[in-house]
């Protein structure tokens, strides 16, 4: 089993090189970037001598657990994609962590990030889950990231609902391609919670096949600059917004016209009172109204259909 330790660093040709007047201890103390990707590493050993470490590259290894990083209080970037990690653990001391890459692991629940208040990017794409599993989010973790998180990548994780992500009000770049999202109304609702969203990729989801999918999202999210890899032309957006407003105005006008024409004053059916000139039922036999179930007193309004008018005049 290969462990990442200071001894491994000492043996690495890409790192420590003996120089006159410079000790290995001083080298470790001033080390800021550590590159150990694709080295068959299975565990992280004692690296506590590297107190100024800011960037750690450990992708494409065989690491199962995240541990022994409590010393790295200055760490800002952690690259651990394509390992065998199943749980997000032991990151609470990484107070300065800004970017976390965990794609291509075996994580089923996103948790353990409650103390990472400076985390801006979280990459969780392509988790190796069973067909029955989908990536889930711990509510407390989401709340803790609500202010800081700007970039979220959850591509290809069997996800069918993202309403829980509405708390991430600082989100600017969101990618959820290749999932099982289908509810376009839910997406439109999310935009009211993401006022800074600029880039979004939902390609490969069932929702993309909905009629007017692209038009609806463009008009609903006015800050969006790129959707599914295609830039949004501002002239196109303004045209769609005006077209939508015009369509809604016509619908409201038609509804009002229908309502105003569907009601008649019952007073016109009172015995002894002649109909107003030009009334559509001016020739109705007033004696037949009770048989048709039309009230003969009061001053309320009742709906009368054209078929009923013709029946009454027959």
* Rg over CA atoms: 33 Å
Largest sheet, in brief, is:
10 strands, mixed
Strand content is: 5-15%
Shape: elongated
How many helix segments? 7
Distance between the termini: 97 Å
Number of strands: 16
Widest sheet, order of strands = 2-4-5-6-8-10-11-12-13-14
Indicate the mean pLDDT. Answer: 84
Structural class: alpha/beta
Helix content: 10-25%
Residue windows where pLDDT falls under 50 for at least 5 positions: 264-294, 296-314
- Helix and strand succession? EHHEEEEEEEEHEEHEHEEHEEH
Question: Can you walk me through this structure?
Answer:
- With 314 residues, the protein is of the alpha/beta class.
- Helices cover 22% and strands 14% of the residues.
- The chain is built from seven helices and 16 strands.
- The strands form four sheets. The chain has a ten-stranded mixed β-sheet, with no helix packed on it.
- Helix 5 links the parallel strand 12 and strand 13.
- The C terminus is likely disordered.
Q: Can you summarize this structure?
A:
With 314 residues, this protein is an alpha/beta fold. Helices cover 22% and strands 14% of the residues. Residues 264-294 and 296-314 have low confidence and may be disordered.
Descriptive key words:
7 helices, alpha/beta, disordered C terminus, 314 residues, elongated
Write the layout of secondary structure elements.
Layout: E1 2-4, H1 6-11, H2 24-30, E2 33-35, E3 41-44, E4 55-57, E5 77-79, E6 99-101, E7 109-110, E8 121-123, E9 136-137, H3 139-144, E10 151-153, E11 173-175, H4 184-190, E12 199-201, H5 213-220, E13 226-227, E14 230-231, H6 234-261, E15 263-265, E16 301-303, H7 306-313
Parallel strand pairs: 1-3, 2-4, 4-5, 5-6, 6-8, 7-9, 8-10, 10-11, 11-12, 12-13
Antiparallel strand pairs: 13-14, 15-16
